[in-house]
Amino acid sequence: MATTVGDLRNRKLTKLFRILDADGDGAVSVGDYELFGERLARVSGQTDAARIAEMKATLKMIWDEFQSKADGDHDGIVSEKEFVESIVRPQVGDPIRFAQFVGLTCNLLFGIADTDHNGRISKAEHTRIGTEVLRLSDAEAANSFAKLDFWKKGYLTMDQYVIAYTQFLTSDVSLSNGNWLFGDF
Q: What is the three-state SS of 107-125?
């Protein structure tokens, strides 16, 4: 099923693709997810081997369940075009699967970003994961936090995170705050 992606969504999803392309080779593979997991473990300050294994297992689950299916030509890697289509396709054809992808990803990222485990992501926590994991500049991370803190509380909640990630993946509206979840696009 071919789906049309507007320019704004294409730019955002291309940005996410480049973040996940951890080795910078122009494709996403299970190895990129493993490298991304190592960056997440490092920024979380996690030293518990069981927790690190759980984080890596969750990323492997995201790869196995969602991204590996994007490999249309079965070459073991996901091209940018395949990646964008793999995000858009479930939104159209299987909204329950899409909701599972959003939930799984948000639980993982929020749990890692919330380094003090208080159920909130502070500006400092958001900036740290933004610069050290997502490879954003300090200015991009600060702008991202300002956009995502749409309730102006000085921190992000899981609800805001789910809203932001859903907007990032689905919105064609340029003013949607979630567009800036992963920095400038």
A: HHHHHHHCCCCCCCEEHHH
Asked if residues 53 and 150 have their Cβ atoms less than 8 Å apart, the reply is: no
How far does Cα 28 stand from its chain's mean position? 13
Question: Which pTM does this prediction carry?
Answer: 0.85
What are the Cα distances from residue 183, in Å, to 11, 70, 97, 144, 179?
12, 24, 26, 5, 8
Q: Which two tokens stand for residue 171?
A: 């919105």
**20 contacts: CB under 8 Å, gap ≥ 6:** 28, 32, 33, 36, 83
Q: Which of 169, 161, 175 is nearest to 10 (CA)?
A: 169
- Strand pairing partners for 121? 156
pLDDT tens digit sequence for 30-59: 889 888 888 888 887 777 788 788 888 888
Nearest Cα neighbor of 132 from 31, 13, 38 is: 38
Q: Do residues 56 and 5 lie in contact, with contact meaning Cβ atoms separated by under 8 Å?
A: no
Residue 53, classed as helix, strand or coil, is helix
Place of tokens 């927790």: 51
